[in-house]
Amino acid sequence: AFGIKTKFVKHVTKEEIAPIINSKTKAVFAELIGNPNLEIVDIKSVADLAHENGAVFILDSTTATPYLINPFDYGADIVVHSTSKYINGGGNSISGVIIDSGNFKWDYDKFKGLAEYKKFGKFAYIAKLRNGIWRNVGGCLAPMNAFMNSVGLETLGLRMERCCHNALKLAEFFESCDGIEVNYPALKASPFYDLCQEELGGKGGAILTIRAGSKERAFKLINGLKLATNATNIGDTRTLVIHPASTIYVHGSEEQKINAGVFGDTIRISVGIEDASDLIEDFKQSIEKL
Ligand SMILES: *Cc1c(COP(=O)(O)O)cnc(C)c1O
Asked: The domain that contains 132 carries what CATH number?
């Protein structure tokens, strides 16, 4: 509706983007840890390719959080977060943030909408957001929600340490379960293990997915849990599970689902800050009932 043409790639890699990017491309947009396929982007290689084509690289770093990485260090130009998730931490506010590195060299002939903000220099993009888009379209965070985000932010580091630890423990437990396949980037078996070490300090974030073998088994596993809650959100203090194919991806095509790593037997787990042994116990008793 805004006259923006979008091209998609299956995997956000330099190799897959190269054939579809050119000097007319305005922006490359990606999620750092894709939700829920959990693929990690090699930020530097994609940023270099975007910049060679005069395109700005916008990265959604919600699932990695500012605690695990500052994507500007790897060449991302603009970083966005859904603060509804880890930054808030308690699942009590819907909101987001946009952070501009100020480093992108805007070509004002190409980005004509920014030309009138040229005088703001490094702040041109933020000035356009404030004076143009936000004033005209809205998007104003309520003070109470901003306050709850601020309170949440104070414990972001502590929570991330705990939930990344819990996620790895759970992932290792699932590796030992017959009939369960686990996907978690900090596992040695993951194709993203090396990138996870390089960019995220070896911490794989707090989301993992498992495949239960069939939709029926996935439903049974979810319904058998006593501690983890069946709910949509991620980044909560509590562990949340969901069957993406029948909920958040129910309107996706088969191809979109497969590309997002959503199969009929996939369960997404957003790991909270409970005790790891309690979580393992909960999943263990439910898997034993299958
Ligand atoms: C949830 C989510 C969003 C959307 O954020 P809301 O705050 O729910 O509007 C965007 N990107 C990622 C990676 C998310 O997980």
From this structure: 3.40.640.10
Contact 32, 39 (CB under 8 A): no
pLDDT band (50, 70, 90) for residue 2 = confident
| Tens-place pLDDT, residues 41-74 | 999 999 999 999 999 999 999 999 999 999 999 9
- pTM value is 0.96
Mean pLDDT across 196-205: 98
Question: How many angstroms is it from 211 CA to the middle of ligand 1?
Answer: 23
Specify the ligand 1 atom closest to the Cα of 233: 1
Are 249 and 185 in the same domain?
yes
SS3 assignment, position 253: coil
My answer on whether 114 and 76 are in the same domain is yes
60 with 32: CB under 8 angstroms? yes
Domain region containing 75: 14-137
- Look at the chain and report how many structural domains it folds into: 2
Ramachandran region, residue 121 (left: φ > 0; alpha: ψ -120 to 50; beta: rest) = left
Output the CA 85–ligand 1 centroid distance in Å.
7
Q: Does residue 138 have a pLDDT over 80? A: no
CA of 289 to the centre of ligand 1 (A): 33
Pocket probe for ligand 1: among 59, 61, 62, 234, the residue whose CB has the most ligand atoms within 8 Å is: 62
- CA 236 – ligand 1 centroid, Å: 13
